[in-house]
Automatic annotation (TrEMBL), chain A:
Residues 71-84 have a biased composition (Low complexity). The lineage of its organism: Eukaryota, Metazoa, Chordata, Craniata, Vertebrata. Residues 1-101 are annotated as: Disordered. SMART domains: RasGEF. Signal peptide: none annotated. It comes from the Eukaryota. This is Ras-GEF domain-containing protein. Keywords: Guanine-nucleotide releasing factor. Residues 9-26 have a biased composition (Basic residues). One of its GO terms (biological process) is Ras protein signal transduction. GO terms for molecular function: guanyl-nucleotide exchange factor activity.
TrEMBL record, chain B:
The keyword Hydrolase does not apply. Keywords: Cell membrane, GTP-binding, Lipoprotein, Membrane, Methylation, Nucleotide-binding, Prenylation. PROSITE patterns: RAB, RAS, RHO. It comes from the Eukaryota. Pfam families: Ras. This is DIRA2 protein. Its main location: membrane. GO terms for biological process: signal transduction. It is a lipid-anchor. Displays low GTPase activity and exists predominantly in the GTP-bound form. It is found in: Cell membrane. Belongs to the small GTPase superfamily. Di-Ras family. GO terms for cellular component: plasma membrane. It comes from Eleutherodactylus coqui.
Amino acid sequence: MKPLEKFLKKQSSHLSGPRHLHRRQSVSKILPSFLRDTPGDSSSGEKVEEDPSGAPQPSHDCLELPDGLRSPLSFSSDELSPSEPLTPPPGSVGWSLTPPGPLLAPDSPEALLGRVLDQLLTAPRLSDAAELALDDFILTHTLFIPTEELLVQLQQYFCGCSRHTSPTWEGSDAVQKKQAVLCGLLHLLDTYKDSLQEEEKTFQLIKDFYVLVMRDAPNIPQLEGNVIRLHRLVETAELRLTDGSAAPCSKQVKPLFRHFRRIDSCLQPRVAFRGSDEIFCRVYMPDHSYVTIRSRLSASVSDILSSVSEKLQYSEEQGQREEPLILVAVTSAGDKVLLKPDDGCIFTTLGINSHLFACNREELRSLVPLPEEVQLPPEDSHIHRIEAEDLANHLSAFHWELFSCVHELEFVDYVFHVERGRRETANLELLLQRCSEVQHWVSTQTLLCEAPARRTQLLKKFIKTAAICKQNQDLLSFFAIVMGLDNGAVSRLRVTWEKLPGKFKNLFRKFENLTDPCRNHKSYREMVSRMRPPVIPFIPLILKDLTFLHEGSKTFLDGLVNVEKMHAIAEKVRTVRKYRSSQMRLDTDVSPTHLQNKAYVRQFQVIDNQNLLFELSYKLEPNAQ
Amino acid sequence: MPEQSNDYRVVVFGAGGVGKSSLVLRFVKGTFRESYIPTIEDTYRQVISCDKSICTLQITDTTGSHQFPAMQRLSISKGHAFILVYSVTSRQSLEELKPIYEQICQIKGDVESIPIMLVGNKSDESQNREVDSSDGEAMAKKWKCAFMETSAKMNHNVKELFQELLNLEKRRTVSLQIDGKKSKQQKRKEKLKGKCVVM
Ligand SMILES: Nc1nc2c(ncn2[C@@H]2O[C@H](COP(=O)(O)OP(=O)(O)O)[C@@H](O)[C@H]2O)c(=O)[nH]1
Ligand SMILES: [Mg+2]
């Protein structure tokens, strides 16, 4: 298996695994020399600007690490080329990097907030540094202070009853102070965007705060601009909330990506999932009977189980005697993961062809995958009819839709939920799931194609598709296709590959090079640094980088917030912001074929059982390699 | 696990609240409940005999509303036999079966060779009866299908309904009785009897 495949596998196995699994310790290596080169310098092409504020960015390519210090960004052992020396994990040592500008010094969460506000006293004309500090603080605050606590403190500042003292703060008048607090609050609300109303307690605090501000507003005309903005934000959030709950029956149930297939909905544009959204989900019994339940996306395992028991009339007649049901995710290969009653938001973490089963504890061993997951899907003819260009454009368009649904904060939450309890990262998880789906689809299609000449044609088509995706700056599809072709079961088909024209062989070699994880994905990072938005990045790498940032350094140093770490994390998130700072526009034809292709691309039938893929491969070319 | 192609698929249609789920659950699990939980789509499996060997009876319980036309089309095209349920307490519910029957005709073509059972449920509710059993019979005659009145609540005619339906299948011999050796599933089911496991 290619290293990158393992890499992705790890991502997805992490996804499908139980939530409480401990993150594997990362093994870092001695700082490689390339970390000190700035690849950007050598590039002549256009770049995604890494930072709008003009401050130098601490993205790995440009990290200035003193010699001898380990980079927290390097990869775990199996992603390194074997010749590179390994050293133990960075452990608890905080790593340092040259601050990319006037970063605030480490401080307690409360004091840090005070100093962020100090810098906001000049609002509405803020210095770049002030804006950056505020953005860093808001994007990462959940790591060191609960949002509710933050709101309470902001409110105290607003009322002038905060304990914070500093010369700048003392020297400013009340209006300036209130202006600064509002500026901070608005930035928080802007960052939350559409998910503002999702957390009930937080939203209540925001509304209380809002009432307080409105009471003050008539006396302080200077606040008017901000007050109007605040009013709009709170009002729209409130509207979203009542829209949803006032008529729960009429609220549309959203079809979940894989786990409830609905033919008629796949052409609708994807909108972001929220925890309060209702979805349909099938839960199977040991004999493959199933019930479809309607559930909140964020429902806990015990909520799901009680819906199932209710449907099956467990409760009414045999309720007392019945031993409790358990919920198990079963993969197509028959692997089982027992889900814990408190686990929430599990739907989006299931593997591609995994299904949920409810059973008694003693039935656990007898669970087998559904027959449709064990049988081979028929060879599909659509792939042979669709042009590479259409395929690529539909993939990119869909992945742009999915990428656009991911909230900035999901990136932070995904990496840190282990410590802080789970928050909603459904849209990010769906995107990862999709990445894995495309990868398996490429392998599946190639291996299901029995005619050798057609199979070589198919390789050509996939390579061409990957090339166009790359042109579209859709690196997610690009990676997924290349990794699908790199799957051991496909890459061992010597005869098939040999018949490929030299031009395509060379192109594919180039692509493998670009997806090569060696030297911390140097080739990829260079490529992406030359692109201007819109870009669909290879998301797993962003998550990996965030994980390393997180594991490589402590959040608190002697009780003080590690501001550098927070800044580095925020920088990563801002990269995503920049990738999406302009819209990806691909042609929107509405001919029937176009719609058929669009529907085809949005949900693939795939085999995600590697053993089955190898079986197919051996049938096609028994003696290859 | 029996081969999927070996499955005999029965689909239950009818307006919401007429007692489709109650009939299915009464048949599959022998239980009845007063409270109403709307169905989206559930499928229960049972081992039966078919042409002297064992096969799986798949009973799909559908939603009453026409919320999911694509799903409805799919279950019709995959189904081998159909149960069309109305409630004898609601004339409206009998009317609502018409479009479903027409859709079955449209998708399946020759409906005479397909087992279809028209069912008037809630026969226990004599106080509130709106549809006479002769009305049901007349409709069945028009539709060239079989007819039966049932009560899921009183467990009246429920097992008979399923057996009669299978008897209508002329292309193979399907029966609820399993002769000879019991399947593994059947044994497990017996072992777990009283534990209320859906099998
Ligand atoms: N009296 C009576 N009530 C029934 C009978 N069958 C179902 N019900 C009740 O009718 C309601 C709807 O039943 P359900 O099976 O959920 O209907 P469905 O929507 O067609 O699946 C429930 O409250 C049941 O208790 C029956 O045979 N007699
Ligand atoms: Mg029902």
